[in-house]
Fold these 2 entries.
Entry 1:
Amino acid sequence: MSELVSELDAAGLHTPIEPVDATHGILLYLEEVTVSFDGFKAIDNLSLYIGDGELRCIIGPNGAGKTTMMDIITGKTKPDTGRVFFGQTIDLLKLDEPSIARIGIGRKFQRPTVIEPLTVLENLELAMSGAQRLDRLITARLTGEERDQIHAVLDQIGLTEHGGRLAGILAHGQKQWLEIGMLLMQKPRLLLVDEPVAGMTPAEMERTAELLRSLAGSHSVVVVEHDMGFVRSIADQVTVLHQGRVLAEGRLEDLQVDPMVIEVYLGAGDAYH
Amino acid sequence: MVSRTLFRAGLTGLASLLLVLFMPLPVQAADDEALRAALTQLREADFSEKAALVETLVGMDHPRVATILNALAESRLFYVTETSRIVIGLGDDVEIAIEDAITGEALGQAVKRDLDRIRVNNRLRSLIENQLASLGLASADPQQRKAAVEAFLRSPKPEGAARLKARLDVESDQKIQELLTAALALVDLTGTDAAARAQAAKALGGWTQPEIRGPLLRAAAEDSDAAVRQAAQTALAKTEFRLQMLGWAETLFFGLSLGSVLILAAIGLAVTFGVMGVINMAHGELMMLGAYTTWLTQQWLPVNWSLPVAVPLAFLVAALVGIAIERGVIRFLYGRPLETLLATFGISLILQQAVRSIFSPLNRSVATPDWMSGTILLGPLEVTLNRLVIIGFCIAVFTLLWLALQRTRLGLEVRAVAQNRAMARAMGVRSARVDALTFGLGSGIAGVAGVALSQLTNVGPNLGQNYIVDSFMVVVFGGVGNLWGAMVAGLSLGVANKLLEPWSGAVLAKILVLVFLILFIQKRPRGLFPQRGRAAEV
Amino acid sequence: MLLPHWLFSDRAGLVLLAVLAVLGVGVPILNLWVPPDHPLYLSAYTVTVLGKYLCYALLAVSIDLVWGYMGILTLGHAAFFALGGYCLGMYLMRQIGARGVYGDPVLPDFMVFLNWSELPWYWHGFDHFGFAMLMVLVIPGLLAFVFGWFAFRSRVSGVYLSIITQALTYALMLAFFRNEMGFGGNNGLTDFKDLLGFSLQADGTRVVLFILSALALAGGYLLCRWLVSTRMGRVLVAIRDSEDRARFLGYRVERVKALVFTLSAMLAGVAGALYVPQVGIINPGEFAPLNSIEAVIWVAVGGRGTLVGAVIGAVLVNYAKTWLTGALPEVWLFALGGLFVTVTVLLPYGLIGLLQRREKAA
Amino acid sequence: MTKTMPKIISCLLAGALMLGATLAHAADTIKVGVLHSLSGTMAISETTLKDTVLMLIDAQNKKGGLLGKKLEAVVVDPASNWPLFAEKARELLQKDKVAVVFGCWTSVSRKSVLPVFEELNGILFYPVQYEGEESSKNVFYTGAAPNQQAIPAVDYLMNDLGVERWVLAGTDYVYPRTTNKILEAYLKAKGVKDDDIMINYTPFGHSDWQSIVSDIKKFGSAGKKTAVVSTINGDANVPFYKELGNQGLSATDIPVVAFSVGEEELSGIDTKPLVGHLAAWNYFMSIKDKANDAFIKQWHTFIKDKKRVTNDPMEAHYIGFNMWIKAVEKAKSTDPDKVIDAMVGIEYPNLTGGVAKMLPNHHLTKPVLIGEIQADGQFDVVWKTKDLVPGDAWSDYLPGSKDITADWADPKIKCGNYNTVTKQCSGQNYE
């Protein structure tokens, strides 16, 4: 019966949430990770380390394995081999998506996915950490500081005056920000951001860049992006993925003159500036 | 057990043959009067008297005897109520052509209710068949010689043994030789000489025909002589083992044929449901249309030719209706796959009622062509022809569909749209047209399946409903949008069902299969062969 | 009048409740205290038919909760409806006692007839009304929970889920058809005499049952309305529109699903339990997959994801059926089928959607 | 949410109320209810009966109606849905105020409407052979009871065909189960051994008969003459007979005698492979009789199709209808109680000779005929009871109902379920 109760508890109170331990300055470890879909190796012996508070950009041609990597970190895909650790202690391969989300890893999808029939505020409230407990689901009364948190984030993503509007009628860019805002509501340590500026106007891009930069430091941020201009505007460290492997790593200026990298991109047939 | 229908077909041939047999004989051709006299007695006679009369008729060497007895066995022998003339009716309609029984001259049409049929019952019928058959022992056609021996098996009389022995010496056909020896052994089995009886019992081991197994059983139980009983029992053991083996083979065959029916019902759905993501609740009704098309073709074509014509026709009819449905309703619902379920459900109601209003709610009788009726021997196993044909048909349809999807331009476009509608459009595929054609294809196959079903079950307004649930199960089990999946799923569900049936009974077997399906989907949430692409997102 | 905000804001709901109240009061008066020859008199026939509609409406509401809000198209909800019905039916059977055809004090007629020597274990306890009532909730709930728990955890979704829900109800139908099951086979449970000592033939009992149905519908509606107004409701919408998003926000999607699915099944069970004494028979036909599909269609016709729409749809479609099967028995299926097609094609948001469009236009 | 909502819903409410409020219009006609499924699985069998009743009403009106009034048919469609049967019955009796109802086919539909007819004191004529074990004040059973169909058929097989081994195959519902129980008891009483009886039940609409037919084949190959007694229902028959034909089981090997296969069912089957299989009924279309010829002619002109067949339930309605006419004329009123009392003892000639008589237990006296299927889908009578058999509501071969009788004429009993031992009347739904 108690088992049943614990199952009924939508939040799984019984899955303890331990604080992440990043004492060595590294927040995320991916080591010798390999995953293949019916024969094809999407990720091939990939190793990657994300520092605490670092803002890292990951670039690479289509099919380089960027999204698959995010799936692995967030528990959507289980790798065939390899280790994935959050801080020193937490083995992400042992956890499912909700628990991973709750220990402080937020993920933004390629396509902006906000809950369109709900208002901006409701979207943020939904994402609020701690909101997932069953009792909180039924007795949805916001405490003072929860309200403050929501409005803080609202300012941060610059949607203050849109709080009451339906997410569905927001502009494309605004949706992207709202989704980032939802991640922030989770009080995450690590943000995984997939193509945040796809289809944005230069102005929107600029604001997005600001937003992400402002997040770095207090959070670790991993951005997957094609747009080199945008990457240049935010990233100190850039990793190039190719065929599921790390091809090169370093400052963007250096990479852009790296013959291997150029070869890959030209080989991939995409014209990047 | 011999296939009756083949046997009947044989008899009619035999009639003509007897004519030839009797013609040359210059012997005083029994005058028509004697024959008429005998026949006249038939009218008032009760069944036992009729039996005696049949004997006498066979005795007469009148050229028409065989024809008349035949007509009698098939209850086509009549009296014209007022003229009390004895006639033979041709055909089964309300109005039939008649000919004089004795002279054979045609007498034109007559309304059946004005005729008095000379009644026969089963006993009489089998008597006549045996009598006629036994005459066929000398026939040139091995089919009829076989029939003759089998007729003898059904009522083995010692006095007939001599004729069989004579035949055995000259018989060329090996199968018939064996049968003859068995028949003779059967006579010995009831003989007085214990040694011969034991010998016979031994010889009869392994024969599965009831006509032989029956007496053997009796011998094993009741024979006065212990040795004979012993021999009979060992012989029986042999028979039983054979029966068991056959039993397993049979079950497997049943499973395959049930599976092939499921596949036929499902692959059309695998196209519309799988490739297009349309949950077509009217699929069953499209099969129904196919079945009705078969019935219609049989209205103006001889049964034997109707099916080959019905198949393409059914395909056409169902496909056209399908395209109409797609153009008229479904195309407004893309992106709302679950709504297609609701709309097509409405359509299925309409189609059902339409059929009820047009053809009446009564079932339609679809005849089975001769080349599909009866049984044939696959090695030692006797299987029903129509099931065999349907298995073959299923394979053919499947291959054709597969080729259509793999080898043709349309197939390519279909798969393209299934994978990525937007991209396909960008590549210049006219997806609207493709959708219409795909749906037409799926529906057409449903129609074709209907033709097959018309050979197995009711052709009526409810035909569709009885299969729709099963076909969805098959598609989902196999993995939406995967033809091979549907194939494997159909076969395995069919075989599983038939393997369970013997010990669990029909209903429980079906329930178990359903439960298994539910559990299986837990393990493989996207069926046997999951597929990517639009359909997978339904 | 003090109303919680979630109800106050829901005007359609208020109207519905008002109508139910009117019915709950009006129908009994018109049936019991108006002389039969008076034009306003409601015959027992009308009362039972209306009662039936209300039960169907409750079933529709329960479906709308899982389909409209959580996005699970269930094609097996009739199973829970029927199970609830059987639970009460078993109680009613036990109430017959020795008044059966064969006059056996314990065994129902069909068991005597199949020469069963004693009551199968699963029939015990159903002679207590309380127990039966409990089972009306527990049996459908339990089945739904176990089924949902496994299905959702292994992430069965979309048509696969729809089809196995269909498989579930289909299997149950076949099972209940078997006489060996001990539920009366094809004839099901019938020839009921009385409920808690009140004769089911009496107008009074009918009226009470009708009022209970009205109350149950109102209660069911309020429960669902309240639920979807809580944060839970918004989670359901999130799950419907983007399951992954909900998951990456840290929600245990499969648990929420299982929970709501179970709740909905219980509502369906109650509907079934109220349905049986009013129509006077429960048999395996109620499990037929087609029934489930039809119930889903009521919701679609009214407008999914609105709860009120489900009620309107259920009442309207069934009223249409009652009327058409009498008015044009030969061709009513054309009308019904046509209705389904036009609504799904022309009114993606159902009648409610139509009304809302009117509003906007006005 | 919306402003127009109130209007809409109140309209719905009004509409719903209209349901009952519509009063039956002026009673210048006598209304006759027809309660047969016109859609759903049973439409196949029941639609014909609907037409039959319409034909009979039509004819009666041509003869000047009844008690100087015209008859008016009220047709409803219970759509093969059992609860709907009860609802429609109530509609007919309460809303349309019909004087009598002709309807139902399946046992479950009858069971479903029974309480309604007893509560509202209506009259139902039930035209189908059924399992017995019932006799209601308000129902007249014009079809055969088990003793008017099953037992004689078995006798024929036993005595005339020398059958020693029996397969009792049926659809899994109450009629086959009762019939088979009665037959089993009867056969055992005749000294048939247990292992010479094989009982098999299949679900409704069972369509894959391969295994079962081959089992029957095996069962029949034990060297004893074997017969199948089939209580397989409606839809399942076609695939069953097709499979018989295909596996080469002809009537001369293993005859099948069916109780629910008549001319109408056969019209949906290719009967050539079935010649010689049997059916037991109380009426066959093929029977030569003035009344029958007239009836068939009338049917063909009414339905405008010379190919349409007549069958046993149609005759049952024909007899029932005419008996009701006589009873009403006798009672000079359509008042249920008067008519019900008048019904008992009414006589009307069968279409196949002899006179049917309504017995105190609301069943009929009938001739029992056994016919062999012919290639043209008709039956040839090969055996027939010397005289009429009175319908027995409560079988003497079932332990439960041995000492139960039904008698609605005897004022001392007036009960459909009277235990002659305990002198108790039980299981009645009326005062």
Entry 2:
Amino acid sequence: MAVCVAVITKENYPLYISNIPAANELKFHYTVHTSLDVVEEKLSAVGKTASDLRELYLGLLYPTEDYKVYGYVANTKVKFVIVIDSSNTSFRDNEIRSMFRKLHTAYTDVMCNPFYTPGDPIRSKTFDNVISSMMMQVC
Amino acid sequence: MTVYNLYVFDRHGTCLYYGEWNRKNTTGISLKGEFKLMYGMLFSLKSFIKKLSPTDVKEGFLSYQTSKYKLHYYETPTGIKIVMNTDIAVGNVRDVLQRAYSTIYVDFVVRNPLCSLDEPIQSELFKQKIDAFVRGLPFFSARVT
Amino acid sequence: MEREGVRMADEALFEFLHMEVISYIFKSLEKDDSDNGKCTAKLEGMGFRVGQGLVERFTRDIPRFKDELDIMKFVCKDFWAGIFKKQVDNLRTNHQGVYVLQDNRFRLLTQISAGKQYMEHAPKFLAFTCGLVRGALSNLGVNSIVTAEVSLLPACKFQVMMQRA
Amino acid sequence: MLRTESTKINLMRPLGQPALACAGYRWRENYYSHQRRGGYNIGVRIIEDFLARTNVGRCHDFRETADVISKNAFKLYLGVTPTVTNWSPAGDEFSLQLDSNPLAEFVELPDNHTGLSYSSLLCGVLRGALEMVQMAVDVRIVQDTLQGDLQTELRLRFLRRIEESMPAGEE
């Protein structure tokens, strides 16, 4: 499924980033980082145009040669980015949507852990498990 | 029909609340002394009744009646005791006392963090509610003959 | 019906816990004879963290907010109802970043008094909620200062002053 | 306007947090005793709320008590029904097993708090509530999902019946 999943704060620093293969870390960080500009752009259009961007799911941010980058921004401005391998063409929009829902729910649970300090990098086994379920089934 | 007075005791015998409506007599002793005697009497009555009963009692005693008045008694498993004296025409008021406990005592004493549970109740809101409750009872009548 | 029951239940639990937390904090700090300010600040801080978490959950299924007023309306309706089982009765603003939320029967005060009695105790029952609102707004990206004011229980006014960066 | 769908979970949230903050990140033992004492105070009041709302009468024996705790009290306040099990031969001790513990629903203990008995609040609540209905009971947590156990298990041991004392000043 996903090759990279990232959670970014409203101040644009990462709370969580996971990617496979791990060796490509730098590349993914770059990809995610670049996508944030597109996110900002899309968000700044909210309220200015009559488009339906009041939805939390932002859709495809941009495609590269190898990947498709999707975005989702919660009401609390926390950003979620999911990167899919371009070769994986069978993906439907609905599936991406439900992945984001899952991700958002998992993040909400993290926020509700009294031992978690908002803004800290996410270190949670439960969250890790959710993410890895989204990253598996690649091959 | 009418209501004379009402007592609420805690499990240790402290009188948490006392209110009177159409009570015309006095015992001639201080209220404090009266509370003590009342509780003592209830305590003895209750334990003796338990001893007399052929089977294990669940409800305990509910009321006693003289030719002039009737004393109604309700006790929760936590030992809160509500006592109401009425004239003798009043029937079984167990559900009334139970309602006084669940909708007034619990709501305005137990759920009021400023009320400690083992001291006489200071809350004006509680006093207003219980007064309105008693005055609203079908057998309450201020016009006593 | 079932769900209704469950909802009621948790409400009572929240109430009793809130009660106990307040009494715990005030008791534990009384010994150090420190001022009440410290206790209220602690309660406020707790509310802040809870507000942050709750708002994440409460806003998960609703469309993106248009503006600040939209956010405040959400706080008065969904957020308030989710926690206190009723909406704020009145929301006013000066359109310069000050909002006043009026609750005529504030849940955490309704059992305490209907009038002036216990007025001096009211602040400690409002501190957590002030924090709750500030925490929720902060997580929604709005920094604010939240204070509460009571002139007759159980009515209560929360004033939210936006802090512009 | 009410979002009933998620309210149950919503309100569990404010529970966990202050409970913890209540401990103020003190030492573990301290947390434990504070939670127990805090729980006790809650228990003392919540039992009245419970009786008022359920109209449950006095229990005849400890088995009935166990049943009421599980089927009525836990169900009412936490929305779960723990299994009553592992009775001692004398019938004075039993366990409440919870597959899921609503109090700890979102909790993950950090590495420096691994041994923390997060739910000890529950022990205090049960002890306080039962004491008000004249039962002195010892309650402890013997299994805890937060500690990696498969379920959470509370062990309740009946100590003695608290007899109603004669009012002061009476012979």
